[in-house]
Amino acid sequence: MDDERVWKFEESLWRASEERYHERVDPDCVMALSREPWLFTGNDAVEAVSHTPAWEQVSFSRQDVRRPQEGLIAIAYHVAVAKGDTRFSAACTSVYRRRAHDDWTVVQHTQIALDPQQENAR
């Protein structure tokens, strides 16, 4: 998966329906999210993000893509999202594993909520 497809895939998750999360978040996924209980694994990770708003606006910055081995992609980035009056920004990492040709799932995701004023000050 080239870099452009990586970012389209990641954006699709920020705009996702509950069904999309069940398709693309691996049952073996581990997550650290900006809400209690902070750490989620397996089906709890899938459920934790399944009820996330389908964000209307998604903007990435400070993007980095790494490919430590065939079939594994690690990314890091800042995200700013909005839906109506709701705003959220975070520093994130995700790791994708290829299950088959053109079939990728998220096996790790971390979100650290950012204060928008701190992010703009950098």
Largest sheet: 6 strands, mixed
**Approximately how much helix is present in the residues?**
25-40%
Give me the number of helical elements.
4
Q: What is the domain tally? A: 1
**Record field, number of beta strands:** 6
**% residues in beta strands:** over 45%
Would you give an account of this structure?
The protein has 122 residues and is of the alpha+beta class. The chain has one domain: Nuclear Transport Factor 2, Chain: A (Roll), CATH 3.10.450.50. Helix content is 28%, strand content 51%. It has four helices and six strands, in the order ααββαββββα. It has a six-stranded mixed β-sheet. A hairpin with a 6-residue loop joins strand 1 and strand 2. The longest helix has 12 residues, at 3-14. It is globular, with a radius of gyration of 14 Å.
Key words describing this protein structure:
28% helix; Nuclear Transport Factor 2, Chain: A; globular; 122 residues; alpha+beta; 4 helices; six-stranded mixed sheet; 6 strands
